[in-house]
Write a structure and sequence with these properties.
By secondary structure, the chain is α/β, with parallel strands linked by helices. The protein has two domains: about 120 residues, Enolase-like, N-terminal domain (Enolase-like, domain 1, 2-Layer Sandwich); about 220 residues, Alpha-Beta Barrel (TIM Barrel). Helices cover about 40% and strands about 20% of the residues. It is built from 13 helices and twelve strands. The strands form three sheets. It has a five-stranded parallel sheet with strand order 5-6-7-8-9. It has a four-stranded mixed sheet with strand order 10-4-12-11. Strands 1-2-3 form a three-stranded antiparallel sheet. Strand 7, helix 8 and strand 8 form a beta-alpha-beta unit. The protein is globular and about 60 Å long. The mean pLDDT is about 95.
Length: about 375
């Protein structure tokens, strides 16, 4: 198409999608996952799609108008994702580059990249300079804070779902002994060849983290994720200096500079940015350059569809987090084969909404 795409409007629709396995963590149990479906409509008829997963349904009340406000700001503009990202961020100068406004910018950015790839009739990874192919993934669809026996049974199911060679389970129960029993039972259930990651979801203070992380430091884990509150970089550096197991953080990095600060602070061994906080595709690419220069392995957090594309062009690509939470509203969910997410050889990211499901789950 010789005529450049121009934005006509941006539509945002909230849905609540049922979870096959509820999220059970210390602070809550989540049975339905909120998603904001974003359609970046152009005057030329090409539609760029993305979604945001803001954790709580109430948050959508504020994010939907924020996305639509960006649509008014950007209406009539060419679909040049980096330019749109910069102008959207500049609109946040007075309110700051973190929080829900920044998340809205990330959602629009992902939709703009989808549209830019579609108009060129290329998969996003091709547009970014890579190729379509498999992306190694771990199954993160369960293994929450349930009874040890139930977690072990679920672990076997998760391995079988897509031939996965790695799983992530959550720790942080009231009793450390219950965490240890869960870890033992999962290892027994899946055998020695499945890699295991653990995530404390920021549930510990520093003293608890030092005790509990030392208790599992000899278990051959792929990583220990977020044992303490995400912004305590001094605490993370203390833990990193004491542990032999790699320390993983990053889902709460707001923008590439936050990732840079953590690396310079020596607060982690691994990073796993979340797309809605790091700044969508544009923010990821900038963060990936920093991680690559530092030689720090980089994994994704949520958003597996767009994540698979950027992992194909990330120098230190490590693991893709696989969660099928958006599958119920997708016309054709991505397949998983032999533990790898298979990127469809179609223009853009490769997501189309199942409109009947969107109507069913809309709020």
């Amino acid at each position: 198409m010789s005529t450049p795409l121009t934005i006509r409007r941006i539509r945002a629709r909230p849905v609540l999608v049922p979870l096959a396995r509820p999220v059970v963590i210390r602070i809550s149990t989540i049975h339905e996952w909120p998603l904001i479906l974003i359609d970046l409509e152009t005057d030329q008829g090409v539609v760029g799609r993305s979604y945001l997963g803001p954790y709580t349904a109430k948050t959508m009340r504020y994010l939907v108008p924020a996305v639509e406000d960006l649509g008014e700001l950007l209406s009539g503009r060419p679909v040049a994702p980096v330019d749109l990202f910069e102008d959207s961020r500049k609109s946040l100068h007075f309110v700051g580059y973190e929080g829900m406004a920044a998340i809205a910018v990330a959602g629009v950015d992902m939709a703009a990249w989808d549209a830019a790839a579609k108009v060129r009739e290329q998969p996003l990874c091709d547009l970014l300079g890579g190729t379509v192919g498999p992306v190694r993934a771990y199954n993160s669809n369960g293994l929450w804070l349930l009874e040890p026996k139930a977690v072990a049974e679920e672990a076997s199911e998760l391995v079988a779902e897509g031939g996965f060679s790695a799983l992530k389970l959550r720790l942080g129960r009231e009793r450390a002994a219950d965490d240890l029993e869960t870890l033992d039972r999962v290892r027994e259930a899946v055998g020695p060849d499945v890699e295991l990651m653990v995530d404390y979801n920021q549930s510990l203070d520093l003293e608890q983290a030092m005790r509990r992380c030392h208790q599992i430091d000899d278990r051959g884990l792929c990583w220990i994720e977020e044992p303490i509150v995400y912004d305590d970089l001094d605490g993370y550096r203390t833990l990193r200096e004491q542990l032999s197991t790699p320390l993983q953080i990053g889902e709460n990095f707001y923008g590439p500079r936050a990732l840079h600060r953590a690396i310079v602070h020596r607060a982690c061994d691994l990073v796993m940015p979340d797309f809605m906080r790091i700044g969508g595709v544009t923010g990821w690419l900038r963060a990936a350059g920093i991680a690559g220069a530092a030689g720090v392995p980089m994994s994704t957090h949520l958003y597996p569809e767009v994540g698979a594309h950027v992992m194909r062009v990330t120098e230190t690509a490590h693991w893709l987090e696989w969660q099928s939470w958006a599958d119920p509203i997708l016309k054709e969910p991505y397949p998983v084969v032999d533990g790898s997410l298979q990127i469809p050889d179609t223009p853009g990211v490769g997501m189309d909404w199942d409109e009947d499901a969107v109507a069913r789950y809309g709020v």
